[in-house]
Amino acid sequence: MKPDKLSRIEAEVVACRRCPRLVAWREEAARRPPRRFSGERYWAKPLPAFGEAPFRVLLVGLAPAAHGGNRTGRMFTGDESGHFLFSALHAAGLANRARSVAAGDGLRMTRALLTAACRCAPPDNRPTPAEFESCRPYLVRELELLPAGGAIVALGALAFGNALAALEAMGVAVPRPRPRFAHGARVRLGPYALFATYHPSQQNTFTGKLTQGMLREVLRRAARAAAIS
Length: 229
Hints:
With 229 residues, this protein is α/β, with parallel strands linked by helices. The chain has one domain (2-225): Uracil-DNA Glycosylase, subunit E, CATH 3.40.470. The protein has helices at 2-14, 20-31, 69-72, 80-91, 129-143, 157-170, 202-205, 212-225, and strands at 50-51, 57-61, 112-116, 151-155, 186-189, 192-197. The protein has a 6-stranded mixed β-sheet, with helices on both faces. Helix 4 packs across helix 8 (212-225) and helix 5 crosses helix 6.
């Protein structure tokens, strides 16, 4: 039953055209790619979550990159952020391979689902509050498939805030004042453990703000919390 529910959610995601600014931007990026991707056929649609149900860890990113996921059609695939993330996911036992190159490359998630707070590539990598809100029902429905005792990993402060908002929309009590983002933070919210890490963007990884060791430690803690051996 759960795999069917997940498939229905992702089919709706791919067909979504709710946000005119995002539709225009993702399609424009496909029409005018940088020279290194000239001639490639872009996905240029909202990205479905990557993984299979049942899962026990839900990872929440920000949004697809214009020439990463928006090009390849898979979350965190085709750019340096994806390589960095999947190296850590593999080390933590949450993916079967350490690199994410292209859809169909044999990469699989292990009892984990990788999703995002916004499913379309946004201008300047920054969705508006209204765009986050428009996309939130998809995240809520994915969260509803996470069993009690599961773990959520927010990749960055914006993903952390949107994860809190989605949990509230599910009826999970979020304390006041709201939990604040900090790398390595863990918050117990209802039946779930919410973990926070810096986003694996080049801005963070190239400067050393986020290292492989730092990200792997958060992911391993999340896997242990979700009882993934």
